[in-house]
Structures are given as structure tokens and as C-alpha cells.
Amino acid sequence: MKKFGDLRAPVLARPGAAERIARHRAEMVGQLTLAELREARERTQKQLAEDLETTQSGVSRIEHETDLYVSTLRKYVEALGGRLLVQAVFPNTRVTIQTFADVEHAVLATSECSVTV
Q1: What CA–CA distances, in Å, run from 10 to 24, 54, 62?
Q2: In which domain, by residue range, is 77 found?
Q3: How far, in Å, CA of 114 to CA of 16, rounded?
Q4: Distance from C-alpha of 74 to C-alpha of 72, rounded to nearest angstrom
Q5: pTM
Q6: CA distance 101 to 19
Q7: Region for 31 from its dihedrals, namely left if φ exceeds 0, alpha if ψ lies in -120 to 50, beta otherwise
Q8: What is the chain's mean pLDDT, rounded?
């Protein structure tokens, strides 16, 4: 049986591999499910339910839902002490959307100027 280091060395020897791995790792660190986020904030479903004025099963439903209202997600994040940001991601930039009424203006403004990331 080969050691992990013996398998890893040839992969890292490929041009740009270390950078791609580091970039992927950084992206993955910032991605959590709602339940993982709640646990990272050291809150139980019951505690969060009290803040959201719902039941523990209501929090569970939110955490397992695949299509949430933005307002529901915002309330969930705020109950954890955070602030929800919505971003539109383009090949050359990211635009933080302040309100959904501003989406068209934000995209037009970004496409009219040169932005380097």
C-alpha cells in the first residue's frame, strides 16, 4: 500500500497544481450548509427557533429547504448574528446587490466600466 505522500507528490509536481488546490481549498472553507453554519455559531435549533419565533421543526425545515425566500434566509442569518449579502458573480467582477430593485442598475454600471479583480 502506498503512502499518501507518495501519491500526493506527483500531483503537486504538475504545473499550477498547488495553486489550483489552494484556490479550491479556500473556496470550500467558506461554504457551509445552514445547519453547519448554525453549529459553527454554537446555537441549537431550539435556541434559533426562539429568536425566529418559530418551532424547532420550523428551523429544521429551513435548514433542509432547497429553495428559500431571501427574507427567510436573511432572518435566519441575522438570528445567528450575521448579515446576509447577495452577490452577482461575473467572469470579471462581483456585484453586491443592495436591493433587488437595484439589480439592473448595478449590472449596467459594472458592465460599463473596466473592473479588475
Answers
A1: 18, 53, 43
A2: 33-82
A3: 27
A4: 5
A5: 0.61
A6: 38
A7: beta
A8: 82
